[in-house]
Structure to design on (474 residues):
């Protein structure tokens, strides 16, 4: 358990052993459909497909997927309402086509977010980073991103432990104490991150690290059946949307 | 205030990605050069990125009663400089999209412009200006972190206003709308982030002075003059 529900879901997903490139292509196809197709029926089909795939064959726990889908809802709701409000001399009112625009905007955002979540809940970031390398991102940048990913969980663990200790000492019992404790918490996490990085560096230097962190990549072969089904599925969503809109 | 996946029209998403690209590529080149010269920098840069990500797990109480998390862009820019933050910020935004469902992939460019480019540069400018005007480290940190947060929020509001201009008020009307709606939480949060930055750097000057000197945030203390034996 890493402590981040989406990451935990990705590691235990039934699609964990599928090729990350295959899953990336599927999710990007759905994201593009959500961006360019009309809300009805395009976004509805994208959202339904991503949810069905996540809860069905990928076996992502419904509670985790549902909670993750709700996370961007505050922004989507607030942003959508603001976008369809109109300001004129008479004050604030709804734009003439407010309901239609709100549906389209919220639909695109929800469908797109669901498609990204399908990728996030089935593919650990450590599987996606080698794909970035194949896309031409410099090895040094991918290595830094890889270290970020590994250290995030160590630091989150430190953060939880320190916060628990601060809470037990009434560190969050008032606004003033909350700020003071938060500042001390951030400083402790930063100094621990430096300390952890230095110790890692010393350990790797002792093992002869000269040109970077070299590890054996996990080979997850691509599936022609999966890619074919992706092409058919995305094609079907586009065809139905064009026919019905 | 990350723009959610699919919220921007495709043309805007592409446009902001193109706008962010030179800064991110510049940051990537700086990182590649640094890592080539000092391979151990990989771990320190990774630690910096992980710290920026973890800052988003620290909840700050807001005056409006809600709680939100700091952006970390101002503190990151003061500690690690804006060019490096352009790359690290983008990496962190990608991780936030995939691990926390904050932001998205098509909106990564727009969020990178706000969080990884404008926020760090404007915040770092405010920090340098405050220090050049005679302000000490802590006033500079307050200005840098609070202004970075504000600049991020103003940029995001401008991006949304450009995407969704008001039917009667046009772009200006839309800017007022988005600034007004998000300002309710973002302005108190910017002040809160400024205060958190001050508390963070005050703790660092006590507990991690050598690291701050090595990063150039503090000048090395002059060696104490030897007194008569």
């Amino acid at each position: 358990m890493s402590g981040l529900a989406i990451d935990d879901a990705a590691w235990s997903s039934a699609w964990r052993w599928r090729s990350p490139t295959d899953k990336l292509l599927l999710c990007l196809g759905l994201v593009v459909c959500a961006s360019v197709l009309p809300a009805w029926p395009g976004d509805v089909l994208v959202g339904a497909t991503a949810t069905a795939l996540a809860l069905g064959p990928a076996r992502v726990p419904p509670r985790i997927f549902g909670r993750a889908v709700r996370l961007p809802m505050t922004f989507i709701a607030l942003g959508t309402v603001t976008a369809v409000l109109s300001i004129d001399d008479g004050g604030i009112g709804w734009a003439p086509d407010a309901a239609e625009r709100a549906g389209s905007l919220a639909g695109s955002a929800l469908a797109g977010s669901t498609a990204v979540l399908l990728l996030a809940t089935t593919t650990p970031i450590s599987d996606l980073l080698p794909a970035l390398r194949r896309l031409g991102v410099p090895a040094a940048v991918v290595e830094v991103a890889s270290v970020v990913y590994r250290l995030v969980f160590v630091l989150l663990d430190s953060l939880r432990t320190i916060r628990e200790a601060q809470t037990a000492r009434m560190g969050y019992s008032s606004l003033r104490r909350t700020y003071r404790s938060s500042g001390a918490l951030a400083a402790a996490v930063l100094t621990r991150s430096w300390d952890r990085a230095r110790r890692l560096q010393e350990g790797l230097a002792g093992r002869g690290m000269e040109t970077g962190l070299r590890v054996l990549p996990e080979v997850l072969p691509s599936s022609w059946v999966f890619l074919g089904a992706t092409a058919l599925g995305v094609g079907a969503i586009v065809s139905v949307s064009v026919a019905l809109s | 205030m990350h723009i959610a996946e699919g919220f921007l029209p495709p043309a805007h998403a592409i446009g902001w990605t193109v706008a962010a690209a030179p800064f991110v590529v510049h940051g990537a080149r700086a990182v590649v050069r640094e890592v080539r010269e000092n391979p151990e920098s990989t771990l320190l840069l990774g630690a910096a990125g992980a710290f920026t990500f973890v800052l988003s797990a620290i909840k700050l109480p807001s005056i409006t009663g809600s709680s939100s998390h700091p952006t970390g862009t101002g503190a990151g820019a003061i500690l690690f400089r804006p060019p490096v933050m352009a790359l690290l910020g983008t990496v962190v935004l990608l991780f936030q999209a995939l691990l926390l469902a904050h932001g998205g992939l098509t909106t990564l460019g727009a969020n990178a412009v706000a969080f990884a480019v404008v926020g760090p540069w404007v915040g770092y400018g405010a920090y340098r200006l405050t220090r050049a005007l005679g302000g000490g480290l802590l006033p500079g940190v307050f200005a840098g972190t609070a202004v970075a947060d504000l600049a991020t929020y103003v940029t995001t509001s401008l991006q949304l206003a450009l995407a969704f201009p008001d039917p009667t008020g046009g772009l200006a009307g839309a800017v007022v709308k988005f600034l007004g709606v998000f300002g309710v939480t973002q302005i108190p949060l910017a002040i809160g982030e400024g205060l958190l930055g001050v508390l963070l750097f005050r703790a660092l000057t006590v507990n991690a002075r050598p690291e701050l000197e090595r990063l150039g945030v503090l000048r090395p203390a002059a060696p104490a003059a030897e007194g008569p034996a």
Remarks:
- The longest strand of chain A covers residues 85-88.
- Chain A has a mean pLDDT of 88.
- Residues 5-123+219-244 of chain A form one domain.
